[in-house]
Write a structure and sequence with these properties.
Layout lengths: L1 H9 L8 H33 L2 H27 L5 H36 L11 H27 L2 H30 L4 H27 L1 E2 L3 H12 L6 E10 L4 E10 L4 H19 L2 E9 L4 H17 L4 E9 L4 E9 L5 H18 L3 E9 L1
Parallel strand pairs: 3-4, 6-7
Antiparallel strand pairs: 1-2, 2-3, 5-6
Helix pairs in contact: 1-2, 2-3, 2-5, 3-4, 3-6, 3-7, 4-7, 5-6, 6-7, 10-11
Length: 387
């Protein structure tokens, strides 16, 4: 059922390389998750109040926290597609962070209050009321949670979205928490053991952690994070498809909070192209690729001589080798100096900032070995820089 709803919302176009389709798919999966979690919250809260069970109510608060996190991610995706001045966007981001922290605080306070009540109720827990049939209702919710976990895992892998994959894990954990409350009901009915307060300690701790997770997510969104390799790969592929682009040099991508991507790319164009044509090409690529992937794209142009066939072929071979090794690595200022007994390939190599000395040594050795296999005369002179 959830898969059918997802495909109906997404429509016929499922090309996830298209930024608009990708955002719509993300919104669809998050919206399905949010509504499902709100329904679970309502059902569990009604059951908890009917049964006088703190454990069931704590479990309900946990679902409410996860639903709130989904809602904030939906707002992120909607805001990423919104046009406006930088000042307006900054104001929206700041407002979102404030609301995220307030929501996290309220959920944490509510969960903590149930946690204290559970501790206080350990000496004399409240009596259960209601039918044992409620245990079967909760068992049905467990089945749904594991089904939902399967859907969230499928959507997370399809979209390569870490939050949805984490939600799939949360769903499995939530199924375990709900199973714990079912066992409490059965033990109370069959053996007159009232373990509700102990089960409530587990469920309320899980609810408090979901509140803390919202706050942590807001903090992570306010600072720089690493851009996904898939986004870098798709941008490279799309830029290469434009007529007039004969190569891509250095590429740096930064993530400044949710919905803020700044991508800087150095492209190679033939030297004989007129400046007006080059300017038009740059403007077209920045606008179209930026719109497609939801990023701010800045291009830098390197006019190169196209009459040197060896230089072009060698540059292309190096690009292919680096893409197969690590797509986040790029190079620039590539030129050839020919000597009598050897040929120097001189260029700057840009590696991720987290690369250590051993990793830098590995990549340079890989490049030298690859180029020598192509031509034994080649000797690489490489300047390695982090980005």
């Amino acid at each position: 059922m959830l898969y059918r709803i997802y495909r109906k919302i997404l429509g016929e176009n499922e090309d996830l390389r298209d930024g608009a389709v990708r955002r719509r798919a993300g919104i669809a999966s998050e919206a399905i998750a949010c509504v499902s979690l709100l329904i679970l919250y309502a059902v569990k809260m009604i059951l908890g109040l009917s049964l006088h069970s703190i454990a069931v109510r704590g479990d309900a608060i946990h679902n409410l926290g996860l639903a709130a996190a989904c809602l904030f991610r939906i707002i992120d995706l909607l805001r990423a597609d919104r046009r406006g001045t930088e000042k307006e966007k900054k104001g929206l981001r700041n407002a979102e962070y404030i609301v995220s922290f307030v929501t996290a605080f309220v959920l944490f306070e509510l969960s903590f209050s149930y946690f204290i009540r559970a501790i206080a109720a350990i000496p004399g827990p409240a009596e259960f009321t209601g039918s044992i049939l409620w245990a079967f209702v909760l068992a049905g919710l467990i089945v749904f949670r594991f089904y939902f976990s399967s859907f969230a895992g499928w959507a997370g892998r399809k979209l390569n979205r870490r939050p949805i994959l984490m939600l799939a894990n949360h769903a499995r954990y939530d199924g375990v928490y709900t199973a714990l409350t079912v066992l409490v009901l059965l033990f109370r009915r069959l053996f007159s053991w009232n373990l509700d307060s102990f089960a409530a300690l587990v469920t309320t701790l899980a609810a408090m952690w979901s509140a803390v997770s919202i706050a942590i997510d807001a903090v992570r969104s306010a600072i720089e994070e690493k851009v996904s390799p898939e986004l870098i790969r798709n941008i490279r592929q799309d830029i290469r498809e434009y007529d007039g682009v004969i190569g891509i040099g250095s590429l740096s991508a930064k993530f400044y909070g949710r919905g803020r991507h700044l991508v800087s790319v150095r492209i190679k164009v033939p030297r004989e192209i007129e400046a007006a044509e080059t300017e038009k090409l740059v403007h077209t690529i920045e606008e179209e690729i930026g719109e497609k992937h939801g990023v701010t794209l800045v291009l830098h142009v390197d006019p190169i001589e196209t009459g040197d066939e060896e230089l072009l072929l060698t540059r292309s071979a190096l690009e292919t080798a680096l893409e197969n090794y690590d797509e986040s690595i790029s190079f620039d200022h590539f030129h050839i100096v020919r000597g009598r007994s050897f040929t120097n390939l001189i260029f700057d190599l840009y590696v991720p900032a987290e690369y250590n000395d051993d990793q830098k040594k590995d990549i340079t050795n890989f490049i030298r070995r690859t180029m020598r296999e192509r031509n034994p005369r080649y000797s690489c002179v490489i300047s390695v820089e982090g980005m």
